[in-house]
Amino acid sequence: MITAKKLVMVPGPVPVSASVLQSLGREPLSHTDPQFTDAFQELLTDLRGMVNCDGIAFAMAGSGTMGMEMAVANTISKNDKVLICSNGFFGDRYISICEKRGYNVDARKADWLSPVTAEEVDGLLSSGGYSVLVMTHIETSTGAIIQLEAIAKMLRQKYPGVLFIVDGVAACGGAMIDMAWGVDVYFTCSQKALGSVPGMTVVWANKRALAKRESLGAIPESYVDFDRWIPVMTDTKKYWGTPTVNNIWALKEAVRILMEEGHEARCRRHAEDAALIASAMEAIGFSTACKGEFRAPTLSVFLYPSDMPVGDEQFRAAVAREGGLVAGCLGDFAGRGFRMGHMANLDKHMLICYVGAVERACLRCGMDIKPGAALAVMQEGLAKRD
Ligand SMILES: *Cc1c(COP(=O)(O)O)cnc(C)c1O
């Protein structure tokens, strides 16, 4: 058979649109060329508008993990008492980043299947003394989403002195975020639901977060210091480190696509895709790890049926033979299921290909399913959609 196109079905990197690749492949200009600096400035304005940030959007070279570090390095001092609520791998990563920096951290490690609710956060904060709360919007190891709006609004109302930092890496561009709810620092990176290639992180800091930065005085970091970048992000003709020119063009095109669809419409589409894929997967015996209001719109953990004839690695190898790449599970879920990303700019063709590859892998592994059972659910659902 001819070598098939590889379907990237992991929770980032994601398949990217042809126009994003074309932007990436443009002839590089100098970072001082007005054609570039104007485009970069427009991108930053669009990024601020997208999440309703009253402060600054920092778009820089580096992966999402750099965003995690940048967010806390600029807003937390050793005098702060920090509450981190984690319900998975990336929440735990944040705990380790903060502990390594010597912060005074209380870690609340929730069950991997039940994210911390607004009521629980309220209960934890009422024990007093916290000045910073850190949470993960969508936990990539479990496919669980927190009720961010409720938590942020509760925080603003009852604990206005607490700075709220949110890891939005697996969420931004697929799950709604409005920083005016009460989120002070939010960040993501280019290769997830924004739909560009790996290489960039975007950190948004509102006015409260920028004031907190100012109160810290000098910090030891240079590359991730807000103070070094504020002049650049407010006037892209200025220099601190060379911006990733081509990555910025690619991200600009990805954000243009997002805005053309509309932020809210895009988030609705992600929720509809997630629900439809889950129904299709249930038709061939899989179940989603997270249910109801906790099910993420951007990725899912699909647990294997109990009568699975093959092991996890063998199953994922079968998906790979069918041209798809899915991710293994982490931590508590390792070996019990696989992770599928369904974020950014997947169209109907792509969604069918995703589920089709999984279904053929099931047949290849001798699972007792009716060929086309999952695809039938997809086709019926997609035919009703715009
Ligand atoms: C992917 C991810 C990260 C890390 O991003 P990298 O680009 O891999 O460094 C952090 N947090 C969450 C929730 C993620 O999904």
Which molecules are bound besides the chains? pyridoxal-5'-phosphate
Strand composition percent: 15-25%
Radius of gyration, in angstroms, nearest whole number:
21 Å
pLDDT below 50 for ≥5 consecutive residues: which ranges?
none
Average predicted confidence as pLDDT:
96
Topology pattern, helix = H, strand = E: EHHEHEHEHEEEHEEEHHHHEEHEEEHH
- The helix tally amounts to 13
Quick one: how many beta strands?
A: 15
Largest sheet: 7 strands, mixed
What is the topology, as strand order, of the major beta sheet? 2-10-9-8-5-3-4
Distance between the termini: 34 Å
> What class, by secondary structure content?
alpha/beta
Describe this structure in words.
The protein is α/β, with parallel strands linked by helices. The protein is built from 13 helices and 15 strands. It has helices at residues 18-24, 34-51, 64-73, 89-100, 118-126, 148-158, 207-216, 226-234, 245-261, 263-282, 312-321, 348-364, 373-383; strands spanning 7-8, 56-61, 81-86, 104-109, 132-136, 138-139, 144-145, 163-167, 185-189, 200-205, 287-288, 299-303, 324-325, 327-328, 337-341. The strands form four sheets. It has a seven-stranded mixed β-sheet, with helices on both faces. A hairpin with an 8-residue loop joins strand 14 (327-328) and strand 15. The longest helix is centred in the C-terminal third of the chain and has 20 residues, at 263-282. Bound molecules: pyridoxal-5'-phosphate (PLP). Pyridoxal-5'-phosphate binds next to helix 3. Pyridoxal-5'-phosphate is lined by residues 12, 63-65, 90, 136, 140, 167, 169-170, 189.
